[in-house]
Design a protein that fits this description.
7 strands; single chain; two-stranded antiparallel sheet; 121 residues; alpha+beta
Length: 121
């Protein structure tokens, strides 16, 4: 995918979120941010770059970081998209995900090849 594809996906995800969360509204972005969506409950969803990495959706409560999606790890598959998720190293996150999800030891070989190509791009 090209750079503008990732930018479109980020904008589309924010717009879908704006339509889904009642009372959400766009606010003026700051430096390194493309768009910012203010949600209820002091939550903010930011589409921004992070350091030298260009495309992230990051959820904050106030100034506290909660969650991120790195859009560069999206792969187009068939008629949709899927995310390549890095296995977290933070003990708290690992505990939550181990409790909530069943980790797979092996990922489909074809999928790993696609991920390596995407990372190089």
């Amino acid at each position: 995918m090209r750079r503008q594809d990732f930018k479109k996906i980020g904008n589309d995800l924010l717009e879908d979120s704006r339509n889904y969360f009642i009372g959400s509204q766009y606010v003026e972005p700051m430096e390194d941010e493309y768009k910012v969506l203010q949600l209820q409950g002091n939550l903010t969803l930011k589409f921004r770059k992070w350091g030298n990495k260009p495309f992230y959706l990051i959820l904050f409560r106030g100034s506290k970081y909660l969650f991120e999606l790195e859009l560069i790890k999206i792969l187009k598959r068939n008629d949709g998209y899927t995310w390549y998720l890095s296995k977290p190293k933070n003990e708290k996150n690992v505990g939550i995900l181990n409790h909530s999800l069943a980790w797979c030891e092996e990922v489909d070989q074809h999928y790993r090849v696609e991920i390596k190509k995407a990372k190089k791009v």
